[in-house]
Amino acid sequence: MIGRLNHVAIAVPDLEAACAQYRDALGAAVGAPQAEPGHGVTVVFIALPNTKIELLHPLGPDSPIAGFLQKNPAGGIHHVCYEVEDILAARDRLVSAGARVLGSGEPKTGAHGKPVLFLHPKDFNGCLVELEEV
Amino acid sequence: MIGRLNHVAIAVPDLEAACAQYRDALGAAVGAPQAEPGHGVTVVFIALPNTKIELLHPLGPDSPIAGFLQKNPAGGIHHVCYEVEDILAARDRLVSAGARVLGSGEPKTGAHGKPVLFLHPKDFNGCLVELEEV
């Protein structure tokens, strides 16, 4: 069911420093910061030959990653995103298998403008999983 | 400098349950467990179309992931692995940029039989980074 790994998201306390590090020390192709006020984050995509790293930094007072950075002040790997062809079919299969979908259970529009869902990390080995329909 | 994302490693407390979940609920291609006593882990590779997920479970008394699972009993994303063409050149560039290499600073042979190094997570936004020469 799951397809490509769309991205790995890393929450960072200092977006400028993280961008400089990936660009200068790791020599990667770092994109421009994109404010996503609807999602409470500023994102920077780092293009690797086969997938992307998504740097996440809180934006606004109700950022969904503020709590993560309080618990992990240095930052940390926040989630992985797997691509699926049909997000509603994927959701129904996962719910049947006992997994919990975060929020209302209905897909939202993600940072790429595609429908996304998040699965409860307690159901996936402590790993927050995003599904994105492509 | 960094190339492909070789894998994302997820430490899991129950390897059999994690394999069943990725195979049955997420519908992924889950490999057979491989004991790696030299690394203190049992690994299972999950093949995605563009990269791999590496499930890690402690093996033996001195497993390098035992402490991680003590802090994160449900499991969690443990590290990301980026491919590099020349691991010594990569190391020297990173050390010049102020990053710390874990252990002796010399590459070891990783689970794929290739030279690997780990970078200090405090230097990379709380994210443990493995470099693998390919």
From TrEMBL, chains A, B:
EC number: 5.1.99.1
Highest taxon, organism lineage: Bacteria
Gene name linked to the record: mce
Protein name as annotated: methylmalonyl-CoA epimerase
Record GO biological process: L-methylmalonyl-CoA metabolic process
Domain VOC: from-to ranges: 4-134
Lineage: Bacteria, Pseudomonadati, Pseudomonadota, Alphaproteobacteria, Rhodobacterales
Enzyme class per UniProt: isomerase
Catalytic activity: (R)-methylmalonyl-CoA = (S)-methylmalonyl-CoA
Keywords, ordered alphabetically: Cobalt, Isomerase, Metal-binding
